[in-house]
Design brief:
With 187 residues, the chain is α+β, with helices and mostly antiparallel strands. Helix content is 35%, strand content 36%. β6 and β7 form a beta hairpin.
């Protein structure tokens, strides 16, 4: 009986460790971006937030906020980026922080997605295709094609999703991201 209990305890610890490694990305404790790192730093931190815009889709909404952060005595070392919040249809809310470089890449990725949607116009295929852009902080945006159907959605850590009413709303998302970039690059 004692051996059985020890064996079960060993099995439980092993399984727990395996799953903990797989789930580490979702439950990480260290910041994924420079922006997150500085926002969580102890001490005197200057934090600036400016609303950029939002989109409401068929299933939830996205809000974009420009963020500038620096230590009080280091005004020449400002970290810039976007905070993207998603509220899904069940009112579950999550946020992801993108450093400036990731926000610039997001703008380029959305443009490429819109280009692909144009190429796919009128194409009827049985193959399911998706194009995904994801960030270190768990934000992802995706377009899909199957048959004549097209779709677009965004998510944070795959748990909080915003399904766009139409893939054409990507143009609105790009305009908001570009507006945020303009605000972030202004001194």
């Amino acid at each position: 009986m004692k051996k059985l209990i020890i064996l079960m305890l060993f099995w439980w610890v092993s399984i727990t460790m395996i799953y903990a490694q797989d789930l580490g990305a979702f439950f990480r404790t260290e910041p994924a971006t420079k922006l997150e790192s500085l926002l969580n730093k102890e001490g005197l931190i200057v934090r600036g937030f400016q609303y950029v815009g939002e989109i409401y889709g068929a299933s939830g909404g996205m809000r974009f906020i420009a963020v500038k952060v620096h230590e009080l005595d280091k005004e020449d070392q400002v970290v810039r980026g976007l905070k993207i919040e998603i509220v899904d249809k069940n009112q579950k809310k999550d946020a992801s922080f993108l450093d400036l470089e990731e926000a610039e890449n997001l703008s380029k990725a959305i443009q490429e997605m819109m280009n692909m949607l144009s190429k796919w116009e009128g194409m009827d295929t049985e193959e399911y295709v998706e194009i995904v852009f994801s960030t270190k902080g768990g934000f992802a945006i995706m377009v899909t094609r199957e048959g004549l159907s097209r779709g677009a959605f965004s998510s944070i850590k795959e748990y909080t999703k915003c399904i766009f009413s139409s893939p054409k709303e990507l143009a609105t998302a790009k305009a908001i991201v570009d507006k945020g970039l303009k605000l972030l690059n202004a001194r």
